[in-house]
Amino acid sequence: MENQFFVDSQALSPAALEKKHRLESDPAFRKSHMEYLPGMEVLDSDLKDRVLAEMQSYDYTRYTAADVKAALEHTTCSLEDFKALLSPAAAPFLEEMARKAHGETQRHFGNTVYLFTPLYIANYCENYCVYCGFNCYNHIQRMKLTMEQIQHEMEIIAQSGMEEILILTGESRAQSDVAYIGEACKLARKYFRMVGLEIYPVNTEEYRYLHQCGADYVTVFQETYDTDKYEQLHLLGHKRVWPYRFDAQERALRGGMRGVAFSALLGLSDFRKDALATGLHAYLLQRKYPAAEISLSCPRLRPIVNNDKINPLDVGERELCQVLCAYRLFLPFAGITVSSRESARFRDGIVKIAATKVSAGVSTGIGDHEEKYTGKATGAQQGDEQFEIADGRSFAQMYHDMDGEGLQPVLNDYLYV
Predict the structure, then answer these.
(1) For the segment 241-282, what is each residue's pLDDT rounded down to a tens digit?
(2) Which residue ranges in the chain fall short of pLDDT 50?
């Protein structure tokens, strides 16, 4: 069977190549994506069933212009209103949606925009996710930073003025175990006021340990809430287990994390249904844990190493703007992050309407911040990037641009007492 996604790497052994092809071509060879693996914590929660039921029954073609107008007239955006605002019928009302979203953003966040930067500390991965540059069958330069290298990267970032960092790894417990991530959090606490994590999902007690090490919040991409499509895209590894990933944010909150972030990777499946599920997931968890800080992001697919076929499927900028405005109206208190996957032009515009947080000085590679921040070749070993970014502005440039747009760049708004 011809591989739809990747040219087979010459680095694969015949046995590995055979297994890869069988994973791609034979669904019966793959383990169930709905069954927990040993050691995975199972929560007694009905959120999964509620979100899936609403998503699966969502027929966005039945919503009309009258439904959209009614939704925009309501003071509070109900779930039905949210569905209408995500529907194709809302497209002609995008400017009106944007004006109302802008009003909600101003009311709850003023002119503030938060800045942060990601730090990838390892790109080893044990999952076979067909759209990701880190997947275990993609032949890339793998690297895991030592604690000394992590500290050096953090020093470079902190010297730029950044006060919030998001620590990321590939999804490999063998290479990046919880203890390793915890030590990175302890280092980060010395240099930054806010520390986030975007790692493989873990159990409640492990999230509790990472929080004690200094982590404030956790971001988890569900990727897609369409369980059938999820099965087709995640062929191997712990990430294949859809329900364990779904419950990650709730386990993080139970483990003491102050905040959690939600996202679907728009373009993997029907983006309207994925947007509905993401918003509803965040909404239900907010109601269950009222003290939690909730945020969302809405990344689209980006090109990756060794694969020029990965591009956003059917999500244009107008559709993306529609989703963001709908998020803001349905979840007026939630933070909304727009990453460097999007262009500078789009990000500069959307922060005036609905978004509240942007990344700056971004690298999705491993160990290259000194070179990228100073422009000087260091000769140090580096690991390949997860995906290509679209907005490569430095922290200083982003701060200047946001300030020039009449916004108030915020580096941190939380004090430990």
Answers:
(1) 999 999 999 999 999 999 999 999 998 899 999 999 999 999
(2) 1-8, 305-307, 309-310, 312
Which residues contact residue 261 at a Cβ distance below 8 angstroms, ignoring those fewer than 6 apart?
196, 217, 218, 219, 220, 249, 294, 295, 296, 297, 335, 337
Domains along the sequence of the chain with CATH: 1-30 (no CATH), 101-410 (3.20.20.70)
Kindly report the pTM of this predicted structure: 0.92
* pLDDT tens profile 187-236: 999 999 999 999 999 999 999 999 999 999 999 999 999 999 999 999 99
What tokens appear for 89 in the block? 């019928």
